[in-house]
Structures are given as C-alpha cells and as structure tokens.
From TrEMBL:
One of its GO terms (molecular function) is hydrolase activity, acting on ester bonds. InterPro entries: GDSL (IPR001087), SGNH_hydro_sf (IPR036514). It comes from Macrolepiota fuliginosa MF-IS2. This is Carbohydrate esterase family 16 protein. Residues 23-32 have a biased composition (Basic residues). Signal peptide: none annotated. Residues 21-53 are annotated as: Disordered.
Length: 355
C-alpha cells in the first residue's frame, strides 16, 4: 500500500517529501557495518536500532551558524536540554516519516528490494529524528507523513492529501498523557509547502502562521507542551525570497514564544516556551555548494543512489554500487549517512547555540 501510494507520486517530479533519520553512535557491541540491524521485539518500548559507529566516513564538515533571538534566522537553542527528554513527538514529511504515522513503535529499518523504503522510511536506514531520540535515550513517537505540507487548504497542488493539521488531529485524538518537562515536540515542514508555492502561489506567510498556531495549541491544555524544536531545509540547496521570509517569520515567532511567552487557556500571564531552531540549509549549502563541498563531508556523490521512473516508481533496481557515500538515497531524500549527520547537527546546535 505504502509503496503504491509513493509510486503514484513519482511520475510527478514533485513527489519529494520529508523523512526522519534515526541512528546513533553510542557505545554498542561490534556488529557488521552496512545495515547491521539489531532488533529486539521483546521490548514494548522503542529502543534504538544501532548503525555503524563510524557512519562510513561521512561527517559534518560545517558547524552551526548560531544567532540571537529576534535576529536573522539562524541556529538557536533557547532552553532545550537534550539530556532531559524521555519522549520525542515528531511531526513532518518524508524526511521524518518512520513508516508509521500514529506514534507507535517503528519497524526496524530493513530494506526489502526492490522497495527503497527501509521499514517504510524514505531512506535506507534510520531517520534523523530516530537518531536524535537514540542519542537522547528517548522514545520516539512519530506522526510524520511522506508528502505532508503544513496546511492542505493553502496548497491544492500538494500530491498527497496529508498535512501537519492532520498529524495534530491524530496526536490530540490519542489523549496521550506526556510529561511536558521530559517531552520534546519536533516540527519539520517546508519542503512540500515550498514546492506547492511554485504552482499555487506564495501562501508561505499563511503556512508559517499555521505552524506557529499549532505550537500554541500544543502549549495549551491538555497537552501543555513546553519544549519545541523547529527544523527547516525548504529549498534543499536553493534559496528563494519567499522561503527565506517563511523561515524568518517562524524564527521570530519562536523568539516571541520564548521571550514573551504564549497565552494558554485561562492561565494568568503567559507561559514561556523552550525553543530550538535548526537551519539544515547549512548542511545542504555546504554539501551542494563549493564551500566546503561534498568531498569535505566524505561523500563521493551528491546524486541519489536509487532512481524513480514512470514505469517502476522508486526502486532499488539499477541502484549505485556505493550507497554509503551518496548524499541522497531516493532522489531528493537523505541517505542514512546524511540522516546521521543531520542528527549530529541537532546536537551541535544544542551544545553551541545556547542563548
């Protein structure tokens, strides 16, 4: 079913959506490199699936570009302590889609050719958010959906009829009782909104406002969320004034939520939120541009290892010989090694960009 839905998008050059990477490099026993998957079906809690500790030589060759609250869009950490989280609730598109969109435990990232989806992910391993969760020793609750935008009502051309609002409805409908102090809410949209804006017109200002509105809803009863991370790579190596304005309005909104707070329920006074903004454009620009360029990160290619065709959809048939050193796995979608450095980048922002 999933691959069908996915394939049907492929004939449109706009199938690109977002995935969530997950892997980690904690101490774990030696196991074969490659996909070396360890499963533990006996444990109801989602435990990390280890990846090779050396990430096949792929590493960050750039650092965060830290900024200040209310300044220009930049990497920032205003109150997030990565060591305190027991749960990460994740909203997003194919970059963050773990193969299930109801927050339940994810399947191991096993590839069964010719499908290029590892356990339903739009990548060949763990998504970046699973890796962030593994690094934090936290449980991941993933609601992200391949092809999702922020609000479908703004984007009639969006190929898949999935959005942040629908993910919110799923999450809120579960009445999860999560501790606000130990739960991080991760929000990663923009790729599909930007693609749709090229067809439907620039409704990105409205999309940014809808995203900020959802943070206010999550911060209010009954969820009472207090910790938020917003990530962006809308243009994947290209920039546009509309996309930059989209990022800036979200960044300024997050600054306001931290400094001035949000009005929640009947509470007297505003509640200040812990927020982090992760500007993944720095990775894409570093890899796809000349400074420092893809080789500095350990890649041999900025291409995708697998291809999507009108006949076959996305497939491993005809894939590259060296997937471990390609930037993308499916066209426009990070490889598992890229997912790992995305997770590393989150850690670096949390460590370096405190305000």
């Amino acid at each position: 079913m999933f691959i069908d839905v996915f394939s049907s998008l492929i004939v449109v050059p706009r199938f690109l959506s977002s995935i969530a990477p997950s892997s980690h490099h904690h101490h774990h026993h030696h196991h074969p490199t490659g996909n070396g998957i360890i499963t533990n079906s006996g444990d109801p809690d989602q435990k990390p699936f280890p990846l090779p500790p050396d990430n096949n030589g792929i590493h960050l060759a750039i650092g965060p570009q830290c900024g200040t609250l209310f300044g220009n869009t930049a990497d920032i950490n205003a109150g997030i302590d990565g060591g305190t989280f027991e749960t990460i609730v994740s909203f997003g598109d194919s970059y963050t889609d773990g193969g299930k969109d109801d927050g339940s435990p994810l399947d191991p990232p096993v590839l069964v050719p010719p499908s290029p989806l590892a356990g339903g992910r739009s990548t060949n391993g763990l998504t970046w958010v699973e890796l962030v969760a593994a690094d934090a020793n936290a449980t991941i609750m993933d609601y992200a959906q391949s092809g999702a935008c922020i609000d479908l009502s703004l984007w009639p051309s969006n190929p898949r009829k999935v959005d942040f609002l629908g993910q919110m409805a799923t999450f809120l409908g579960q009445h999860n009782n999560l501790n606000p102090n130990t739960t991080l809410y991760s929000i990663f949209f923009g790729i599909n909104d930007y693609l749709a804006s090229l067809i439907d017109g620039d409704h990105l200002p409205q999309a940014a406002q809808v995203l900020l509105d959802q943070i206010e809803i999550l911060a209010s009863p009954p969820t009472n969320a207090r910790n938020f991370m917003v990530l962006d790579v809308y243009g994947r190596g290209t920039t546009a004034p509309s996309g930059e304005a989209f990022k800036q309005s979200i960044f300024t909104g997050l600054s306001r939520f931290h400094e001035d707070g949000v009005q929640v329920g009947d509470a007297s006074g505003a509640v200040k939120l812990n927020v982090s903004y992760i500007n993944f454009a720095n990775i894409w620009n570093g890899v796809l541009g000349s400074s420092p360029g893809f080789e500095a990160f350990g890649y041999t290619s900025t291409d995708s290892c697998t291809q999507c065709t009108a006949d076959l959809g996305c497939t491993t048939i005809g894939m590259c010989d060296d997937p471990d050193h390609y930037f993308y796995w499916i066209p426009g979608h990070p490889s598992k090694e890229t997912m790992r450095i995305m997770a590393d980048y989150v850690q670096e922002v949390w460590k370096q960009c405190s305000v």
